[in-house]
Write a structure and sequence with these properties.
The chain is an alpha/beta fold. The chain folds into four domains: 134 residues, N-utilizing Substance Protein B Homolog, Chain A (Orthogonal Bundle), CATH 1.10.940; 28 residues, no CATH class; 42 residues, no CATH class; 203 residues, Vaccinia Virus protein VP39 (Rossmann fold, 3-Layer(aba) Sandwich), CATH 3.40.50. The chain contains 16 helices and twelve strands. The longest helix is centred in the middle third of the chain and has 23 residues. The chain starts with a helix and ends with a strand.
């Protein structure tokens, strides 16, 4: 494929994410032009799109003075190609003749963008001459204004900036071993981390040793903590609510527990079933609304990974800051409270419940738990350093876990609380 085809594919990914509000993973599955690429060409197109999304607020701010009209007024294909071009120039050290020339060629081959080729060429050449100093920009500027305000309000400017800085670095790829972490590390040339995960070099997951044989699955270190805190035992009955795509279900099943995995999304449950089949593990999979479904009898252990704003995974999914809306984020706490109430209802006396969300927002984490504690049906069982190897720095004053950036490893942001039924 030509260099223009690669730029066209990267721009198509940006259009699908930012204008059609799809995740980058979904865009890569559905983009016809992207899926004509192979090997390193495919990887370069993805890298351009991912880098643009990771720095989008900065890019758009720096682009604005170079344009004769506001960026939103530019047609979607040209807007995507502009972002594709300046990402190469400003953030990827692509030679200017390639970044400008091949991006303009991409416009010529894209009917919806062809008429804007001269405009695109002029702006990109000016962008090459007038390069921004991103080091002088606030890290918060990578996000939309509403998200900046939300996180500054929750944590103050300094901590919010640390959260933003974490997004600017490529995240480590972590694997959860089905059984032997040392064996997985040996076959993948990885490093065993505290808590049992294996850190590996980023690459094509499907091509890595041990994937097809089901020796491991991809899962962030912080995402491993909730299942560990349940201390699953062989033949124990455990309910995993909002379970898809199934990393925590796999952990519990690998420990020998009898897991009932409940999720309302049939497509996401399809991924869970595929992962169970690949790893040779088993679980009872149920498509149902977790706030309405109930087990036949109370159980002693429930894991609730509640749907949330997912703002703790922006390092891996930076498009989340742009495809979500402030009003959508504000609706999550009500649903989380209903789900937590349902999960408590499923527990027998002295049963254990793990509540977790992959977001730093107090309204979706500590506030939900404190409201549940107030009615007296559950009490908090404080998490200790011995419970969370490698994450002692993340234990809060209340005895919950909030894995903000820092400490011994890089990881996603999870809020986790362990509750016991009265």
């Amino acid at each position: 494929m030509s260099g223009a085809d690669i730029r066209r594919a990267a721009a198509d990914l940006l259009t699908l994410t930012l204008d059609s509000r799809r995740t980058l993973d979904d865009a890569m599955l559905t983009s016809q032009v992207f899926n004509t690429l192979e090997g390193s060409d495919r990887g370069f197109a993805r890298a351009i799109a991912s880098t643009a999304l990771r720095h989008l607020g900065w890019i758009d701010t720096a682009l604005a003075p170079l344009l004769s009209r506001p960026l939103p007024a530019v047609t979607a294909p040209i807007r995507a190609l502009l972002r594709t071009g300046v990402t190469q120039l400003w953030l990827m050290d692509t030679p200017p003749h390639a970044a400008v020339g091949e991006t303009v060629e991409a416009a010529k081959g894209w009917p919806e963008a062809r008429s804007g080729g001269a405009f695109l060429n002029a702006v990109l050449r000016r962008a090459d001459r007038e390069r921004p100093d991103f080091a002088r920009m606030s890290p918060l500027g990578i996000w939309p204004d509403w998200l900046q305000d939300l996180l500054v309000s929750a944590y103050g400017t300094d901590e919010a900036e640390e959260l933003a800085k974490a997004q600017l670095t490529e995240p480590t790829l972590y694997l959860t071993p089905k059984a032997d972490a040392d064996a997985v590390a040996a076959e993948t040339d990885g490093i065993v981390m505290a808590g049992g995960g294996v850190a590996v070099s980023t690459g094509s997951v499907e091509d890595m040793d041990g994937f097809a044989s089901g020796d491991w699955w991809v899962q962030d270190l912080a995402a491993m903590i909730p299942s560990h805190l349940l201390d699953p035992q062989p033949d124990e009955m455990i309910v995993d609510l909002c379970a898809a795509p199934g990393g925590k279900t796999l952990q519990l099943a690998a420990a020998g527990a009898h897991v009932t995995a409940v999720d309302r999304s049939v497509p996401r449950l399809r991924f869970l079933k595929e992962n169970l089949a690949r790893t040779g593990l088993s679980a009872t999979v149920i498509a149902a609304n977790a706030d309405e479904w109930r087990p036949d009898a109370p159980v002693m252990k429930v894991l609730l990974d509640a749907p949330c704003s997912a703002l703790g995974t922006l390092r891996r999914h930076p498009e989340g800051a742009w495809i979500k809306r402030e009003a959508e984020v504000a609706r999550f706490p009500a649903a989380q409270a209903r789900l937590l109430d349902a999960a408590i209802d499923m527990l027998g006396p002295d049963g254990t419940l793990i509540y977790c969300v992959c977001t730093p927002l107090p309204a979706e984490g500590i506030d939900i738990v404190e409201a549940a504690l107030a009615d007296g049906r559950v009490h908090r069982e404080a998490i200790t350093a011995a419970d969370v190897p490698g994450f002692s720095h993340a234990i809060t004053a209340s005895g919950d876990v909030l894995t903000r950036p820092g400490g011994e490893s890089d990881h996603d942001i999870f809020f986790i609380s362990r509750l016991k039924k009265a």
